[in-house]
Amino acid sequence: MSVSHTSAGAPAVDPRRWKALTVIAIAQLMVVLDATVVNIALPHAQADLNISDGNRQWVITAYSLAFGGLLLLGGRIGDLWGRKRAFIVGLVGFALASALGGAAVNLGMLLASRALQGVFGALLAPAALSLLTVAFTEAKERAKAFGIFGAIAAAGGAVGLLLGGVLTEYINWRWCMYVNIVFAVVAAAGATVYISDRGDERNRDRLDVVGTLLATVGLVALVYGFARAEQDGWGSGLTIGMFVAAVALLAAFALVETLVKAPLLPLRVITDRNRGGAYLSIGLAMIGMFGQFLFLTYFLQLNKGYSPVLCGIAFLPLVVCLVIGSTQIGTRLVNRVPARFLMGPGFLLAAIGMALLTQLEVDSSFATHVLPSEILLGLGMGTASMPGMSLATSRVRPQDAGVASAMVNVSQQVGGSIGTALLNTVAASATSSWIAARAFPGSVPEAAAQQAAVHGYAVAFGWGTAIMALAALIAFVLVNGGGRSGAGSSGESAQQVAIPVVAH
């Protein structure tokens, strides 16, 4: 490994870091959009493979269970192996799993591919963010890099809806899987050339096997509990049992991490006030965002009659505003304004955008009701996500970068699972109550069914508004207002993060 030096004798930053950012961004986009690109293709896959209504949810759940359950382990493996190696292995594995899914001839083959996507995604996603964390250490460059990364992370779900609609409508649902191969090959080729690791940034401690088992099974139980809540209800025995098991396992995990010499998740990563506030507020905000994607998709396709492609296009203003909020507002202000004064107002603006959707009616137009909400949600989430992601990985020791990055993904994944299960249950209950209150004789008229469904969406948006507002409150209260967005815990020196990635 050849290392260039500055006049002061310190290692110079990697001159290929911006090309590395492009590679990392491609990989991150692939992982994030995969959470929604399959949603649009699912009805077509269900018909093609003769999947029952009761089993179709497993196409989504298989991915989220593996991804959410293995994230902490994936981040730790990146710290052990080296992040470049974990990144490339994750890309290659994700591509092979996607090829398997695209060629699926039955439900079992498709579910296996989705679970494998989750496994390799759990290795890839923390490696991507931790590579970014250690590559960009200068304040202005770090702000710009995290602005781009944050925009992709926040907008990827909407991009997935658009891409899934185009591929499903004009080619075949299988290309919603095959398209990942293109992303993965390009990113893996770029990674071999432009991404490099430093051996002294690895955490060479032995793997915490007990902590790994407790964390993995606990996170799987938590995500599975929310999946069952959506299907069976919050009061079912299985749902309650999963939540009880998750709490017990994760509590045991926290205890073990205080006792072992080399913990899977050093508690210093999450007990820092800024990082803890960032993880919590990001997770809450994702509950609202996933609910927004879910119910706007229902409203536009089922109530307004939009095609999959037109539905995807309808989300473009949200994507554009997310990019503007992250790269133009968050990035420009991140080194001038305390973090909580970007995150708090950003989440609050997103909450206002969500509140507008509570006024939806069956005959509401896109221009007057949906578009203003998308603009506010996009600008708010974009502005908040950039400093939030930067803060969540700021001032960690380089040896902890992988697991700190994994915690960001855990927040997003668990938040998305909660958002899908909780808000879908709220909407279904509100819809049923609306119909029951009117006591229709016989079958419910089509017009009334549509009005009931939209009422359910509006109630769910109300819950999403409250949760997004809570994210804003947590950002205001927990995130340290005295430091800038790029600053981290006062307990860790700047020198600990200022170890750049250098060229071989």
Automatic annotation (TrEMBL):
It is a multi-pass membrane protein. It comes from the Bacteria. The chain crosses the membrane at residues 20-42, 57-74, 86-109, 115-136, 148-171, 177-195, 207-227, 233-256, 277-300, 306-325, 337-355, 375-393, 414-437, 457-479. Residues 20-483 form the Major facilitator superfamily (MFS) profile domain. It is found in: Cell membrane. InterPro entries: EmrB-like, MFS, MFS_dom, MFS_trans_sf. This is MFS transporter.
